[in-house]
UniProtKB/TrEMBL annotation:
Transmembrane residue ranges: 33-59, 94-115, 127-145, 175-199, 220-239, 251-273, 285-305
Protein name per its UniProtKB record: Sugar ABC transporter permease
Membrane topology according to the record: Multi-pass membrane protein
Start and end residues of each ABC transmembrane type-1 domain: 90-303
Organism encoding this protein: Rhizobium vallis
Length: 315
């Protein structure tokens, strides 16, 4: 049965209209896609692609010398049941997160409140205080930190002037993790800048009204500053928690890549590095990496779920 000529003409017309519409859209958006092309290449080639390959490798036995061998859930079962170093790394990492994040945010907020009092040369102070955040994650600063807290370092030299004989902080299992916490707190510049921006958004007339009502400075901070600053606190807390879970360079440099003494600085990322590039168990390291992704996702999801009870927005 032949198709009517009129129907063919209608189909051609519809096809021409669709093609013309596509060409107009392409001509209008082509420059935008071209500008996005480097990002798209980076996202698919350097982020999404390697992530999917890592997910596949987490179910294999792969030593980078032979082809991956599928083992199913064996890597995850071993992590959960037969890997004591995994438990040690999790304990060290959680200790670091629990101590470093609150102390860093508290110190950053205090400095931000001091800078918010209208100091002269504020841009200079902001730059000086932000500098540790730029340098703190470098190898050079980690080496310097190791020298500061060595048995004959500057910290013990200062304590000796007060008649105190300090231990070798970085080689004592009871103190080594806290030297890394101190290094993290020293890198307070990034959350400090964000806190300062948040403080600048709080209307000053609220403080003036509270002062007229006889509210003390502490009460103004507790009743005005903290509630209005909770969105900024929430943002900084989430970002700094994720960064703390991913910390690697200080522990690697200060412990010489071993996580010692007695695994006291064995960060999760450092253990992952040891398994991948020290023991050449790339499949097992990929499983460790995806467990870290899940842990960070759980903490982030919990933060967002709990934020409805303590984070106050304009509405």
């Amino acid at each position: 049965m032949r198709t009517p000529a009129g129907a063919i003409n209608v189909e051609r017309y519809q096809g021409a209209v669709a093609e013309g519409r596509f060409r107009r859209l392409w001509n209008a958006n082509a420059p935008g896609y071209l500008f996005l092309l480097p990002w798209l290449i980076g996202f698919f080639g350097l982020t999404l692609g390697p992530a999917l390959i890592s997910l596949y490798l987490s179910f294999t036995d792969f030593d980078m010398l032979q082809s991956p061998r599928w083992v199913g859930m064996a890597n995850y079962v071993r992590i959960a049941t037969a890997d004591p170093k995994f438990s040690a790394a999790m304990h060290v990492t959680l200790t670091y997160v629990v101590f470093s994040v609150p102390f860093k945010l508290t110190f950053a907020l205090l400095v931000a409140m001091a800078l918010n009092r209208g100091l002269r040369g504020l841009p200079i102070y902001r730059a000086i205080f932000y500098l540790p955040s730029l340098l703190g994650g470098s190898v050079a600063i980690a080496v310097l930190w190791r020298q500061l807290f060595a048995s004959d370092g500057l910290v013990n030299a200062a304590l000796s002037h007060f008649g105190i004989e300090g231990p070798s902080w970085i080689s004592h299992p009871n103190y080594s993790i806290y030297t890394l916490v101190a290094l993290s707190v020293w890198q307070f510049g990034s959350p400090m800048i964000i806190f300062l921006a948040g403080l600048r958004q709080i209307p000053q007339d609220m403080y003036e009204a509270a002062s007229l009502d006889g509210a003390s400075k502490f009460r103004q901070f507790y009743k005005i500053t903290l509630p209005l600053l909770t969105p900024v606190i929430f943002f900084n807390a989430v970002v700094q928690t994720i960064e703390a879970f991913k910390a690697f360079t200080p522990a690697f440099i200060i412990s010489g890549g071993t996580g010692g003494p007695i695994n006291s600085t064995l960060f999760y990322t450092l253990y992952l590095y040891q398994e991948a590039f020290g023991n050449f168990r790339m499949g097992y390291a990929s499983a460790l990496a995806w467990i870290l992704v899940v842990i960070i996702a759980i903490f982030t999801a919990f933060s967002f779920l709990s934020s409805r009870y303590w984070v106050h927005y304009d509405d």
